[in-house]
Design a protein that fits this description.
It contains 1 helix and 9 strands. By secondary structure, it is an alpha+beta fold. A 9-stranded antiparallel β-sheet has the order 4-3-2-1-9-8-7-6-5, with no helix packed on it.
Amino acid sequence: MKILFTVALLVGCMTAFAQSPINGEWKGSRETPNGTFEVNYTFKVEGDVLTGTWKSNFGETKLENGKVDGKKISYSISFNDMTINSTGELISNDEILIKNERGEMKLTRVK
């Protein structure tokens, strides 16, 4: 019984550590000539694939072509006949810096 409990505990710990720190809900904002642009992301990492959603006052859309390489991510967002390619990097467990042709945006984890 003691061995079974130890094995179950080890498997549980491995599962917890296998989750990417990028997974989860994130929010950010950026000042534009038209006011503050706010955005919410949901990221999900499976191996080296990044999926999720992007939500703003323009609506919600799925991330496309998402990739993960360590602490770095890349993805595309398509809306209104436009595609924006973005890259990002996890700079702490609670911050991601996103860059694209529109500038930079710091995301913070939603707790």
